[in-house]
Amino acid sequence: MDVVTAKYVISSPSVDLCPKPDKPEYAFIGRSNVGKSSLINMITKNSSLAKTSNTPGKTQLINHFLINNEFYIVDLPGYGFAKVSQNTRAVWEKMIEGYIKERKSLVTVFVLIDSRHEPQKLDLEFLRKLGDWGVAFNMVFTKADKSTQREAAKHARQFIEAMKLEWEFIPRSFITSAVKFHGRKEILGYIKELNDQVAEAGSQIADS
């Protein structure tokens, strides 16, 4: 699958103001400054689709992008949060949790993890939270171009080994570089695979 069209639709402050949930959705989230907007722009081959910034906390709403008129990529605020007030942090946490737990058309959450670092407690805690909520997720190790390929792969292995201490099943993961377009084909292929499963499930329901 390739991206033919990608357009911004809306930024919403809460899940009830999001677009009608009539298409599969794939949410992207990670700690502040993990390279989320750059990754979305790389996947869609549109350098101006998601707003990038050197300042953490640029994304503050639930942003929907319509891809090929078939599915949504959703850009969520980072869970590490920038230097904001406790009240603002609480609002963001409520917004993120509300979307992830309540959005019926959400297929999976792509959790972005900085491949330059050893396993971080904050990332592991967020995955644990998704598990508690019963939400499907996958890991995307970002910024592989910022270190050696060997180091990025080592940190990804270390993260997965840390997960195995708590998780019986380890979801699929991807190592990416927004600069070199590494991982783009694999992520889009996986999204197509999931889209096909959603379509098949829908047809089975319609036939029953």
Can you lay out the helices and strands and say which pair or pack?
Elements: E1 6-12, E2 25-30, H1 36-44, E3 62-67, E4 71-75, H2 86-102, E5 106-114, H3 121-133, E6 137-142, H4 149-164, E7 173-175, H5 184-207
Commentary on this structure:
The longest helix has 24 residues, at 184-207. It is globular, with a radius of gyration of 16 Å. It has 208 residues and is α/β, with parallel strands linked by helices. The chain has a 7-stranded mixed beta sheet, with helices on both faces. A hairpin with a 3-residue loop joins β3 and β4 (71-75). It has one domain (6-194): P-loop containing nucleotide triphosphate hydrolases (Rossmann fold, 3-Layer(aba) Sandwich), CATH 3.40.50.300. It has 5 helices and 7 strands.
- Using only CA atoms, what is the Rg? 16 Å
SS strand fraction: 15-25%
Total E-strand runs: 7
* Count of separate structural domains: 1
> Can you name the CATH architecture?
3-Layer(aba) Sandwich
Structural class: alpha/beta
Mean pLDDT: 90
SSE run: EEHEEHEHEHEH
Low-confidence blocks of residues: none
Q: According to CATH, what is the class?
A: Alpha Beta
Query: What is the rounded distance between the termini?
Result: 29 Å
The coarse silhouette is globular
